[in-house]
Amino acid sequence: MEQKIALITGATSGIGKACALILAKNGYDIIATGRRTDRLEALKNEMPEGRKLLPLTFDVRDKEAVFKLLGNLPEPWKNIDILVNNAGNAHGLDPIQTGDTADWDAMIDINVKGLLYVSKAIIPTMCERKSGTIINIGSIAGKEVYPNGNVYCGSKHAVDAITQGMRIDLNPFGVKVIGIHPGLVETEFSLVRFKGDEERAEKIYQGYEPLLAQDIAEIVEFCVNRPPHVVLADIVVLPTAQASATLVNKNK
Ligand code: NDP
Ligand code: 8X3
């Protein structure tokens, strides 16, 4: 049987990890990336029987590392069928007038430029092979802007625009481009946004049933199992209790 390969960025946690596991269950060998090597190594032990995992530790902001590692993949890993651009986070939740420029740099550099670097390293082979699927994990924050979301929302609006641009430019090559835009998903996301403040992070997911990383992974699974002539171009997925970026029906 021909080897099928999926590369998932940010596979050490949350949505990325769930995507790696579900794609492995669907017969893909996995290239898993992130900065935390121990977690990537641990993921190897969770692979289903017969599936392989190649861990690659790099920061998506490090352009040189991205092109060095992804440009020199070992022979059996070169032809990537599915790229899930998932690595990303919010850093801070502050009004624009008091926002921290280090947070702004992180969000633009990781969520936008990191996604671009990884894509640029992978897309040429997809074009040559005239095949492949790119799934960009955007956000409801890429469809709406909410108070204090300023730069994070900007970064995710950019992901939405870049996704649309990729779909147009890669159309002649038969490469599928999919944008998935989740609302509130309980992961380490809020812990990162609030810089390790567990109490504040937990509160985000209290009083209603948030989405789980597995819910997003199951959508990825559905997307990649569509026949060749079908692409789910743009998907917004919310917890049932969430009606918009700012409207969540919480039990008081
Ligand atoms: P997590 O914090 O659980 O996971 C984030 C992942 O991104 C980790 O694996 C982390 O790996 C990786 N990552 C972060 N920064 C970098 C970096 N500089 N270089 C390489 N990898 C990096 O959050 P989620 O799973 O929730 O987030 C995944 C994606 O989903 C993000 O793009 C996020 O914006 C998006 N999203 C999340 C929502 C939510 O409510 N949770 C809703 C909508 C979208 P490591 O730290 O090991 O590098
Ligand atoms: C993550 C969801 O609402 O915190 O992108 O922006 S939200």
From TrEMBL:
The keyword Oxidoreductase applies. InterPro entries: NAD(P)-bd_dom_sf (IPR036291), Sc_DH/Rdtase_CS (IPR020904), SDR_fam (IPR002347). The keyword Oxidoreductase applies. SUPFAM superfamilies: NAD(P)-binding Rossmann-fold domains (SSF51735). Keywords: Oxidoreductase. It holds the Pfam family adh_short. GO terms for molecular function: oxidoreductase activity, acting on the CH-OH group of donors, NAD or NADP as acceptor. Belongs to the short-chain dehydrogenases/reductases (SDR) family. This is NADP-dependent 3-hydroxy acid dehydrogenase YdfG. The lineage of its organism: Bacteria, Pseudomonadati, Bacteroidota, Cytophagia, Cytophagales.
